[in-house]
Design goal:
Layout (H helix, E strand, L loop, with lengths): L2 H18 L3 E4 L5 E8 L3 E11 L7 E12 H4 L17 H4 L6 E4 L2 H7 L10 E4 L2 H26 L2 H9 L17 H11 L5 H9 L2 H7 L10 H15 L4
Antiparallel strand pairs: 1-2, 2-3, 3-4, 4-5, 4-6
Helix pairs in contact: 1-5, 6-7, 7-8, 7-10
Length: 250
């Protein structure tokens, strides 16, 4: 089976499973359909994405895939999405990125849980592995369907509570290891104050003060090649703070 044919079959099978769960295939910039499927309303944008690595004639003629989910909470992201590109590198300063609404958090499948149910299909790396054959593609459908419906979709829906996110991020003034949070780490300090404000967290002003204490570090880091955009972070932070302060809905 040629790689192109395998890609088409996997993407079609993935899209069909997503469609069954009311997710639609997202077109890429060039008009082709890719490995991302979305479901949205006026509050949330959920997406399921398939990443694929294929090896032909190697490792027992298997292919490997992984998948993840993202949730964009519009109540959070709409406050600062027009500023998001300023917190990225210069290569991100494009018209497309200026209109991009970033995901609020990402979710991943529970490797141990899936490994217990499908021991032959989960590698220690966390990637899913299948034989490059008709039987392998049928196994792929079974495993992917289970992960999407029993793991990723429930996580996407359960974590999107502002109060849950506030409990994760803002129970204390200082943050611990980012790996324990669902929230996307790019812009995490901005999402912290937005969520704290939206949930009326009593630590809101102290959290803002704490995050401002790092402004000199961002300015210093911006002097390094490739990190020039760090100088924008204090500017974006203050703008978001002012928007939250001036808008009576918050």
């Amino acid at each position: 089976m040629k790689k192109k044919d395998l890609d088409i079959r996997l993407n079609d099978a993935f899209a069909e499973i997503c469609k069954h769960n009311k997710y639609s295939n997202k077109q890429t910039i060039d008009g082709n359909t890719g490995g991302t499927n979305i479901r949205k309303n006026n509050k949330f944008i959920h997406s399921l994405s398939l990443s694929q690595t294929v090896t032909l004639g190697v490792s027992n003629n298997q292919f490997e895939v992984t998948l993840s989910g993202n949730c964009t909470i519009l109540e959070i992201e709409n406050i600062w999405k027009d500023l998001y590109y300023l917190t990225k590198g210069e290569s991100e300063f494009t018209e497309w990125n200026k209109k991009y609404t970033p995901p609020t958090y990402s979710v991943y499948f529970d490797k141990k849980q899936i490994q217990e149910k499908f021991p032959q299909n989960v590698k220690e790396t966390g990637w899913l592995t299948f034989e490059i054959s008709d039987n392998g593609i049928e196994e792929f459908k079974e495993v992917i369907k289970y992960i999407i419906e029993q793991d990723l979709i429930p996580k996407l829906e359960n974590v999107r509570s502002l109060q849950i996110l506030d409990n994760q991020l803002n129970s204390s003034i200082e943050l611990d290891n980012f790996e324990q949070y669902n929230i996307n780490d790019n812009g995490v300090l901005l999402r912290r104050i937005i969520i704290a404000r939206l949930t009326n967290n009593p630590l809101y002003e102290e959290i803002c003060k704490h995050e401002r204490s790092f402004f000199p570090d961002y300015i210093e880091a911006s002097k390094e090649i490739g990190y020039e955009y760090f100088k924008n972070i204090p500017i974006v932070f203050d703008e978001v703070y002012n928007r939250l302060k001036s808008n009576k809905n918050y």
